[in-house]
Write a structure and sequence with these properties.
Elements (H helix, E strand, L loop, with lengths): L7 H22 L1 H8 L3 H9 L2 H30 L3 H21 L1 H4 L5 H24 L2
Helix pairs in contact: 1-4, 1-7, 4-5, 4-7, 5-7
Amino acid sequence: MYMVPINYWAVLLNVVIAMGLGFLWYGPLFGKQWVAMMGWSESEMQEKMKQGVAKNYAIMALGSLLMSFVLAHSLIFAAAYLQVSGIMAGIEAAIWNWVGFIAPVTVGSVLWEGKSWKLWALNSGYYLVVLLLMGTLLALWP
């Protein structure tokens, strides 16, 4: 059986990157816009932050770990299939995973939940940026 070479340190570091970007993205960068687009007041947001925030961060960290692990596998296959290497392999794997998995699934929030396209762009934009960062790290630190 062939073992796919995965850099588990890079996978773990990607969790830190994803959580750090999430803190910045939904905090200083776009936090006020996100809260407004969600239809929450500032006090409602503060209340939500008190309700199970540690559990929510743990679940997000686990999700980021899984995303990084799967992207590491995708990167290896993308590099072989697309015949690219280095940072371009990381970027292409990230983009194709976002186009194929994130964008189509998250558009349901607009179609079925009545969320705005601006909110979709903000949320899915986070995933595009985080996948690009993850793909870049995985490609540069094999």
